[in-house]
Amino acid sequence: MGENWFQREFMVPRRLAFNVLFYGLHIGIFAYGWWSQATNLKLAGLNTLKFSVWASRGAGLVLALDGGLILLPMLRNILRIIRPKLTWLFPADENIWFHRQVAYSMAFWAMVHTTAHYVNFINVEITQIRKQTALQIHYTQPGGITGHFMLLIMLLMYTTAHAKIRKECFEAFWYTHHLAFFFMLGLYTHATGCFVRDSVEPDLISTFPFYSTEHCLGYLSWRFIIWPGIIYFGERVWREIRARRATRLSKVLIHPSGAMELRITKPSFKYTPGQWLFLQVPELSKFQWHPFTITSAPEDPYVSVHIRQVGDFTNALGERLGVGPSVVAQMTKAAVKGYEKDEKNGFTRGDFVEVDPAMTSITLPQVRIDGPYGAPAEDVFANEVAVLIGAGIGVTPFASILKHIWYRQKKGKLGSLRRVEFIWVCRDAPSFGWFQTLLAEVEAAQADPNFLRINIYLTQKINEDMLWNIAVNDAGADYDPLTLLRSRTMFGRPDWNSIYGRIKSAIESGQYVPGSSSQLKTRVGTYFCGPSVLAKAIKKATEVNTDANVEFSFAKEHF
Ligand SMILES: Cc1cc2nc3c(=O)[nH]c(=O)nc-3n(C[C@H](O)[C@H](O)[C@H](O)COP(=O)(O)OP(=O)(O)OC[C@H]3O[C@@H](n4cnc5c(N)ncnc54)[C@H](O)[C@@H]3O)c2cc1C
Question: Where would you find the membrane-spanning parts of this chain (predicted)?
Fold first, then answer.
């Protein structure tokens, strides 16, 4: 029986450890905030409000902590640098997941803090421990103003961050999330009204921080939590400067599946395989940066990305390059029909069309790139066997990794790596056009046909026409009629358990990894990019098949 949501989120050992630490820390800080308010004799006046003031102060301190934590996983450049050294401590690739956990926690503690403060303010008005009404505290004092302002921003940010909105209208999420700048300003200045004080009136002064720390007895937490904000701001400025360095779109190739390959020259841009970048085309939008996986290898003289046309930005880019959705639809149709390898003209379905500014009226637009980000796939070389699995568009990071393996193979620098299984699960035949040329090149370059095995699965139901074409063209041909590769396409969904079972048996029988010693455990690393449902099934198969001789590991590329 599969594990349920609760077991998955809370009971898996890594998650359990995280939850105990994360929520333990939050409850501890809440208790400390509560206790330090309740026992502070200077604040005896406020303490007459009892539980509500203790709860509001405890929750306020937790919110300060979260306000500092929430930006840490978004320090992309710093994460990229420290990631390799700290993978043992925390999963740096789960940064967005962590960002979301902090956001959920903030939503909860904001409710506690606000409710407790509402009670506080009503009780201040009733008891008149200060000569103010609840409405005055709410709407005329800095704490009340910044608090309500932050709640409004949270409402906008949380609703537009919902997965459905991000999918339907990413821009709504993207632009609204920039309100975080004002939220942070609100957070850092929330205590300036001196609500927590031992004096009758707020003890405001004319020099920074504009309230006396002698009588205003807040936690002064802004002094600590402002640092992630400053560093994040610095990163954004640095990204802007870096993105402005000389960049030129040197070539555009249109693959038969309709994918646009942009080849960009930027000498200052250094990356490793498996990473991604942000792309901006100022002519289309001065504000939008879209993430794309790098498909070239560091050894290539250019940086390339493969772009599928799926929405406003990518369609506009297609139109700008003269290959909008209608042209792509025609190309795809032709690609589906072109099962045969055209020996006479040398044209195959895998061939691409180059947008050559010299031949057409199209000039290539100016582009800017920012990055690289994400996990480098260098640890592929630490395994004896690497299983690279891409589903649909999830194949993109493997283009770079496969090319890089190929370059290192040529230099004889493969590290521990003895074999590579590349598995590509594709829904429909036209998608093969994406990397056909690349795969054909890599396949043809193999001196040892066993080093790299390409396994392609087509999951789409095939119609009669297609079946007929395959039957006619497959008979006795050296290449697969669908992919035009030497490896044959398999139909239907892969059975992961049997794939891993076969790899394990072959390793154990000593036939699979040349020169491996039976005394040593063979490490088989799986690198996957694609939908989570598939990730779960593959991960399970790696776990089930791990034994004393073969250790399967699983890593999901984040996309
Ligand atoms: C790390 C990463 C790597 C990616 N690599 C590739 C790649 O190699 N090739 C490729 O074709 N696509 C890739 N994508 C997806 C690509 O970023 C979106 O297809 C593109 O931004 C769509 O923009 P749009 O305005 O044309 O479409 P929209 O209609 O605005 O969006 C279509 C889909 O793309 C998502 N999306 C839109 N804008 C962004 C954005 N700025 N950041 C993240 N997601 C967005 C939306 O959630 C939606 O599901 C990658 C995404 C990520 C996060």
Answer: none
Residues 293 and 235 grouped into a single domain: no
**Parallel, antiparallel, or unpaired for β 248-254 and 260-265?**
antiparallel
- Specify the pTM: 0.80
265 Cα to the center of ligand 1, angstroms: 22
Smallest Cα–Cα separation from 256: which of 313, 180, 334, 179? 334
> How close is the Cα of 460 to the center of ligand 1, in Å?
23
User: Is the domain of 26 the same as that of 113?
Assistant: yes
* Nearest atom, ligand 1, residue 374 CA: 1
Q: Is there an atom of ligand 1 within 6 Å of 182 CB?
A: no
Cα–ligand 1 centroid distance for 310 (angstroms): 8
Distance in Å, CA 174 to ligand 1 centroid: 12
pLDDT in tens, 463-499: 666 666 666 555 566 666 666 666 777 888 899 999 9
CATH of the domain at 296: 2.40.30.10
User: How many domains, in total, are found in the chain?
Assistant: 3
**CATH code where residue 428 lies:** 3.40.50.80
Q: Name the H helices within 39-127.
A: 44-47, 51-69, 76-86, 95-127
**Structural domain span for residue 360:** 248-373
Q: Do 145 and 270 lie in a common domain?
A: no
Q: Which of 241, 259, 274 is the last residue of a domain?
A: 241
Query: Ligand 1 within 6 A of 166 CB?
Result: yes
Residue that terminates a domain, selected from 212, 241, 270: 241
230 and 181 Cβ atoms separated by less than 8 Å: no
Q: Which of 33, 102, 25, 64 is closest to 184 using CA atoms?
A: 64
Atom 45 in ligand 1: residue holding the nearest Cα: 170
At 262 the three-state DSSP class reads: strand
239 CA from centroid of ligand 1 (Å): 20
Shared domain check, 164 and 48: yes
Atom of ligand 1 minimally distant from the CA of 316? 26
For 538-551, what is each residue's pLDDT tens digit? 999 999 999 888 88
pLDDT in tens, 386-410: 999 988 878 888 888 888 888 888 8
Q: From 294, 314, 321, 558, give the residue whose CB has the most ligand 1 atoms within 8 Å, as the site to mutate.
A: 314
Do 54 and 168 have their domain in common? yes
- Whether residues 330 and 387 share a domain: the answer is no
Q: Which H or E run contains 36? A: helix 13-38
Helix 95-127 to helix 51-69 angle, to the nearest 10 degrees?
Answer: 150
Residues 357 and 398 placed together within one structural domain of the fold = no
